[in-house]
Structures are given as C-alpha cells and as structure tokens.
Design goal:
Order of helices and strands of chain A: HHHHEEEEEEEEEEEEEEEEEEEEEEEEE
Shape of chain A: elongated
Radius of gyration of chain A: 27 Å
Largest interface: A-B, 75 and 70 residues
Oligomer: heterodimer
Order of helices and strands of chain B: HHHHHHHH
Largest sheet of chain B: none
Shape of chain B: globular
Structural class of chain B: mainly alpha
Helix content of chain A: 10-25%
Distance between the termini of chain A: 25 Å
Structural class of chain A: alpha+beta
Number of helices of chain A: 4
Radius of gyration of chain B: 18 Å
Distance between the termini of chain B: 41 Å
Largest sheet of chain A: 8 strands, antiparallel
Strand content of chain B: under 5%
Number of strands of chain B: 0
Number of strands of chain A: 25
C-alpha cells in the first residue's frame, strides 16, 4: 500500500504551487515596511535625526506613500496605451487612489490585549480599519450626508496639553473635518473619545496633536451598500426538489414541512415571515449539552449514507452564539457544524466550528476557521458510515473540506438545525436558514 | 526595472555587503524576497495579521544583523534562517487573542469577494494539514513550495543535506496525500 502514486502526488504539488502563487502580501504593507526599514537604516548612514524621526515618522510614512501612489499613477498614465482621446477626457480618466493608512498594531498605553486595528507611534494611537477604509451604508450617514464617528485616541503617559484633531479631504475640495467635544474614554486614563464628523465621503487625511507630538493617517470613506450580498425576498432557488437522490427538502417558503419536529420550541423566537423564504431562529440563551437549548428543529436521521446542506446567514457577536447543522441524540451525544463565536485559546472568535460531543465530553478538535466575511455561508455535512465530514462554500459550487468527526455510537439520532448558545440572556441574534436538504449518498 | 529582474546570487552577496551602509541596497534585497518570506509565514500561521508581523520581524532582524552576514552561504538561506527562528519563537510563545471589540469605532466589513475567501480557506486547510505531519517535513515543504527555495538553499536553512531535503519533501507530500486527504479539499 506504500506505492508511490505520481498522479496524486502531482495533484498535491499543483495544489501547493497554485496556493503559494495566490498568496500576495498587501501592497500597502510592503510599502510601509520598506519605508520603515529605510528609516531604521538612516542612523547608520550618519544622520542624527532620531528625535526628529520619531516626531515625523508617521507624517513621513503618509508622505512617502502619497508620493509613491502619485508616482505609480503618473507611471501608469505614461505607460498606458495612448488612444485618440480628447485631452479633456484623457485628464478625466486618471483615477485618484487614496493612499490609505493600514494599522500597524502598535499597542496603546494601558491596553493589554493585542489587536490588529491599532495604529500609533510612541506618543499617540488610534484604531483604523484593516483595509484602511471606512465602510458605511447610506443609512449610517446623517441627513446632510456627513458621517459621524466617536473616534478613539490614546496618548502616552507624560504627554500633556489639549488633544487637537484636524482633517481635510485629499481628493476633492470639501469642508474640513468637524471635531466637537472630546471626552475622557472608559476604563483607561489615556483614552480620549472625540466626536468627529466627516462632512463627505472620500479620501481624508487626519492629524491629531498633543503637546509636540502628532499622529497622521489617511482613510477613505466609502459607501459599499450596493456591493454587499443581498438576499432575495424569496430566498434562493431550490433545485434540490427535482433531485433523484433527495430524501428530504424544505425551502422554508410558507410553512414548515410536516416531517420536522421542534424540540424545546419557543414560538416567539422563530419565524418564516421576518425574512420571507428563510427560516429565522433567534439564537437565545441555552445549550445543547445543558439540556436547556431552545428551538432545535430536527427530523429522524436517514438510514445509510447521506449529506445534508443548508445556507446560513448569521452574525454571531458574543461568546458561544452558534447556528448551523446538528446531528443530535441528546445533550451528551451530538455533532454540530456551523457559524459561531468562541473566545478561548482553542477558538478563533468569529468562526466556523465543527464540534463533537460524545458521552458528555467535547472532542478536542473543533476545526475552527476564521469566519470573517462569512455572514452568509453554505454548510454541508456528509455521513459515510460513522464518519461525518463537514464542508463549507461561499457560492454553493466550490466546496472546501473542514474536517471529519467519527461517531462512536449511532443510536436514535436526529438531524436538523440549531441556533442558540448565547451566554447573554438579552442577546438573541437571528440566524436565518435559506433551505435545508438531505440527499442520499452511495 | 532592476527590482523585477532576477538577482543572481553573486549580485546578492554584493548587495548584502552594500546593505550594511546603503538603505537602497537593503531595499532591493527586501523587494526581491519579501513575497517569499511572507508566503512562508502565511502558510505556517494561516492569517494575514501574524504573517505580516512575522515578515516585519524577519526583515527588521535582518537589517539589525546585516553586518553579521559573512557571505558564506546565500543571502536567501540566511534570511530564511531568520524567518524560521521568528516562526519558531512565534509558536513557542503564548499568542495573545485578538479582541475585536477593543476596536471601539470599527464596524465589521461585510463583503469580500468569493475568491478571496476561497483562497483563505485553502491556505487554512494547508496550514492545518502541515501541522499534522512531522515538523521537518512540513518545514521542507514550506521552504521549497512557499519560500521558493531550491533544495540546496533549503538544506542550508535546515542544516541538512540536499538529499535529506529531497526525501523530506517527498515523504511530506506522501503524508499530505495519505494522512490528511488534502487533495479532497478542492473537490467538485
């Protein structure tokens, strides 16, 4: 059995090579790190600029990036094929690229937990979006189209004076940044919260000053509502209804299929009408293994091999909130696969989790995977013998394996949907299921 | 244009000498290797934040120690030696958890192209699979496939013979095939 299978080996080689070629560092990160290296190199060339460098490093970064972007734009415009375009149109085709600042993870004073969102130097800190942009929906904007944000700033111990925040738009003429009341922030003597209003969307350069220190960043306010995934009012099509291998299917159109059974039903916390075409189950307090879970929707597990699938929309925000597929015997024996939030050393916070509890004990492997940007995800759980293998997909076509759990005993099991496990009794985020289907497998 | 041209190793040795006092020379070395170093870290840690951290640490350490590079081996082997040390330190330490709610005014981004997510999942799958095989085999695979090193260069990083690297890579690939079902992860 140890024969060397060149074809399969080549498949893995190809997979590794293809994946390696797809990994590209963020261009802004590469540029920033290069600038940082160059700055760190300067003293060795004899420049005595350490103090000045500290004060101006952030400005220099932003300036260097601005120059870089302008240079790249200029270069691109020079290298692009010249067409017989009127001069006025030619000028208009040059697109401004906002040289946004990417956070550097520098930890503010009296903050112990690391976060990639922090940005700062040795004296002032703030937080920025990971992509350098502020994504807002139209509904988030004020009636005058401004964007109001309570902005956090941290300052170093020993730094004195008033915090002054200024900002102006880089890509177009616009009113300057409005900064109102600045208050002491919660739980940290070095934290200030500034009421900040951006008069318009676009590319903004913001500078905060305190004493002789300053921190500058560039951010871009973008409205991206139109590119967000949208949910059709009727849900997605249900092609599975014509499948020969279909064992069971429900597209949650008007009523639940009669073969479903609610366990621990709370009628006030599920709905087929809140988002027509989707079954909504609020993820309330209660745990499968605690025996106090609400609204488990199940049906008997089919004989033989099968796969079940659903499309889930869920945004867990607090610990242990979970929604997805479940294979259930009782609180001590079940397998669950879905989107959840778990903050622990073995977890990845907002993630996809595939967990097995057997005889009251969790299996140590939860196959956690970061679920950022997975508010809507397809989940598939495939049974072959006693093995359950989990897959996820973003488009319902390309599936990726998450892992396999093996069930020790297969007695009176049910299969279905779970939404619950909130630690917070006041928090009930809705989990929405587009459909549920079971297909037989050979 | 010089940035995009392949740098011959003799040129690299010369650049590395110049880089002791010339930031542009170091920048050229950086530009040539940053992608490979990033890929190497990315496939080990499986997330952008830590991959960028480790890439930064690798090149900052290289800059601080560039004077100690004697040119006995290749520069790429030297820089990946630093990268391997940084990676080892990372996995030895207790990695702090990221607390998302600490970003007081950061709303979550709701959209990413499918292909980015798919790519990230593929990387995560490979990261997980590599953790299931022996560290030496995993390291040989990541150095050659993701770091882009030749077997000779990988042998210098890992202080093993070139034949050993070939064997480690070959057996590592077999492990990935036989034990981890990695090939299934792009099925259908």
């Amino acid at each position: 059995m140890n024969s060397f299978n060149h074809s399969e080996d080549d498949d893995i080689k190809n997979l590794l090579e293809e994946t390696a070629n797809q990994i590209e560092p963020n261009a802004m990160f590469v540029a920033q790190l290069e600038n940082k290296l160059k700055q760190n190199h300067l003293p060795k060339k004899g420049f005595n600029m350490l103090t000045l460098k500290k004060i101006t490093s952030v400005i220099a970064w932003a300036g260097a990036l601005t120059v870089l972007v302008i240079t790249v734009n200029w270069f691109a415009s020079q290298m692009a094929p010249k067409e017989n375009t009127p001069a006025s149109l030619s000028t208009e085709s040059t697109e401004f690229i906002c040289p946004v600042t990417i956070p550097n993870g520098s930890l503010p004073p009296n903050v112990t937990k690391k976060s990639p969102y922090y940005f700062g130097n040795d004296n002032l800190w703030t937080t920025l979006w990971l992509d350098g942009k502020i994504h807002v929906k139209a509904a988030d904007k004020e009636p005058d189209n401004s964007v109001e944000i309570h902005w956090a700033w941290w300052y170093a111990d020993g730094l004195t004076g008033e915090l002054i925040v200024e900002g102006h738009r880089l890509d177009e003429q616009a009113e300057r940044l409005h900064v109102g009341e600045i208050k002491q922030g919660p739980d940290n003597p070095n934290l200030l919260i500034a009421y900040t209003s951006f008069p318009t969307s676009g590319c903004w350069e913001v500078t905060a000053r305190m004493g002789d220190s300053s921190l500058t960043f560039v951010t871009e306010i973008v409205e991206d509502e139109e590119i967000l995934p949208t949910i059709s009012p009727a849900g997605s099509p249900v092609p599975f209804l014509e499948s020969n291998s279909l064992i069971f299917g429900d597209n949650f159109a008007n009523s639940l299929d009669k073969n479903w059974e609610w366990l621990y039903e709370d009628k006030n916390n599920w709905s087929l009408t809140n988002n027509p075409g989707w079954l909504e189950i609020n993820a309330g307090y209660g745990f499968v293994n605690g025996g106090n879970i609400e609204n488990l929707l199940v049906r008997p597990m089919p004989e033989g091999n099968f796969e079940m699938e659903t499309r889930l929309k869920f945004n867990p925000i607090e610990k242990m909130q979970f929604a997805g597929l479940i294979v259930f015997e009782n609180g001590a024996n079940h397998i669950q696969f879905g989107h959840g939030f778990c903050h622990a050393p073995s977890c990845t916070d907002d993630g996809i989790y595939f967990q097995k509890m057997s005889r009251g004990s969790w299996d140590s492997e939860n196959f956690d995977i970061d679920a950022d940007h997975m508010e809507i995800v397809y989940l598939r759980l495939r049974r072959k013998g006693n093995n359950f293998t989990a897959y996820i997909s973003q488009n319902g076509t390309d599936w990726l394996m998450i892992g396999t759990h093996t069930a020790e005993e297969m007695n009176e099991f049910s299969v279905g949907l779970i939404s619950g496990q909130s630690f917070n009794r006041d928090s009930r985020p809705p989990a929405q299921f587009d459909y549920f289907v079971i297909n037989s497998l050979p | 244009m010089s940035i995009l041209m392949k740098i011959e190793s003799s040129d690299e040795l010369q650049l590395a000498q110049q880089a002791r006092t010339d930031s542009d020379a170091f920048a050229e070395l950086y530009q040539h290797h940053v992608r490979q170093v990033y890929r190497y870290h990315m496939v080990h840690v499986g997330n952008v934040k830590d991959a960028e951290d480790l890439t930064s640490q690798t090149f900052i350490a290289a800059l601080e120690n560039i004077s100690s590079f004697r040119g006995a081996g290749s520069f790429v082997a030297w820089i990946f030696g630093i990268a391997a040390n940084k990676k080892a330190m990372f996995f030895r330490s207790n990695r702090p958890q990221i607390q998302l709610d600490e970003a007081l005014h950061i709303p979550s981004s709701k959209f990413a192209p499918d292909q980015l997510t798919s790519q990230r999942l593929k990387i995560a799958s490979i990261t997980r699979a590599l953790k299931q095989i022996s560290p030496d085999r995993a390291n040989a695979i990541t150095l050659t496939f993701f770091g882009g090193l030749s077997n000779t260069e990988a042998s210098r990083v890992m202080h093993k013979s070139e034949a050993s690297i070939k064997m480690l890579v070959s057996r590592g690939l077999q492990d990935l095939r036989e034990r981890t079902a990695l090939k299934l992860e792009v099925e259908e």
